[in-house]
Design a protein that fits this description.
This protein has about 200 residues and is an all-alpha fold. The chain contains six helices and no strands. Helix 1 crosses helix 6 and helix 3 packs antiparallel against helix 5.
Length: about 200
C-alpha cells in the first residue's frame, strides 16, 4: 500500500484487531467491523473539521451525538440474543426478593443509560474544548473593557492558553472517536454474549 492507504492501514488494523476482535470475539467480530470503522472515522474526521476556524462543530451538536448513539442502540438490539434479555429479566444467582429492584435497574441501564452515556460523553467533550478556547479569547475583551494595558496583558496569556488547548483538542479528537468506538464494541459484545461469558 502507498500514500493514504498506507497511512490508514495501521488504524484500520488496530480497530479490527484491538477493538472489534478483542471485545466482540473472533466468532462475531467480522460483521461489526464495517460499522465500527465507519463510526471511528466519521467521528474523528468531523472532530478535526470542527477545529477549523469557521467550520461547524458537528460532533459538538447533541443531535448528531444522539443519532450516533441511536445507531449503536439499534445495532445492539438487532444483534441481541435471548440470553441477553433473560439475564435482565431473570438475574442468575440473585435472591427473588431483590428482583423487583434489580430487574428495572438492569433494563434502564441497558436500554437507556448506555446510549445516553454515549451521546453525552461525545457531545460534552467536544463542546467543552471549544468553550474553553472561546472563554480564553473572551478574557481579552473583558480585560480590554477595563483598560488597554490590561487587555494587552491578558491577550498574551489568553492566546497562549487558547493555542495550548487547541493543540490538546487534536489529541481529544482521536481519543473521543476511539472511546465511542470501543464502548460501542463493548455494548455490542454484551448483547451477543451467550451466557454472558463465552462470546470469545
Amino acid at each position: 500500500p502507498k500514500g493514504l492507504q498506507s497511512a490508514l492501514e495501521p488504524i484500520i488494523v488496530f480497530i479490527r484487531d484491538e477493538v472489534a476482535k478483542n471485545n466482540i470475539g473472533e466468532k462475531h467480530y467480522r460483521r461489526f467491523v464495517p460499522y465500527l470503522l465507519t463510526l471511528f472515522f466519521f467521528i474523528w474526521i468531523n472532530n478535526l473539521i470542527g477545529l477549523v476556524p469557521g467550520a461547524a462543530n458537528v460532533t459538538g451538536n447533541i443531535a448528531v451525538a444522539m443519532v450516533l448513539a441511536v445507531f449503536t442502540f439499534i445495532l445492539m438490539m438487532v444483534g441481541s440474543r435471548r440470553q441477553y434479555w433473560s439475564h435482565m429479566a431473570a438475574p442468575v444467582g440473585v435472591p427473588y426478593a431483590v428482583w423487583p429492584i434489580l430487574v428495572p435497574i438492569e433494563f434502564i441501564s441497558n436500554l437507556i443509560v448506555k446510549p445516553f452515556a454515549l451521546m453525552i460523553r461525545l457531545f460534552a467533550n467536544m463542546l467543552a474544548g471549544h468553550l474553553i478556547v472561546l472563554s480564553f479569547l473572551m478574557l481579552i475583551f473583558i480585560f480590554s473593557a477595563m483598560s488597554i494595558v490590561a487587555g494587552l496583558g491578558a491577550s498574551v496569556f489568553s492566546v497562549a492558553f487558547a493555542i495550548f488547548i487547541y493543540f490538546l483538542e487534536l489529541l481529544v479528537c482521536a481519543l473521543q472517536a476511539y472511546i465511542f468506538t470501543i464502548l460501542t464494541a463493548l455494548f455490542i459484545s454484551e448483547t451477543i454474549a451467550t451466557g454472558g461469558h463465552d462470546h470469545k
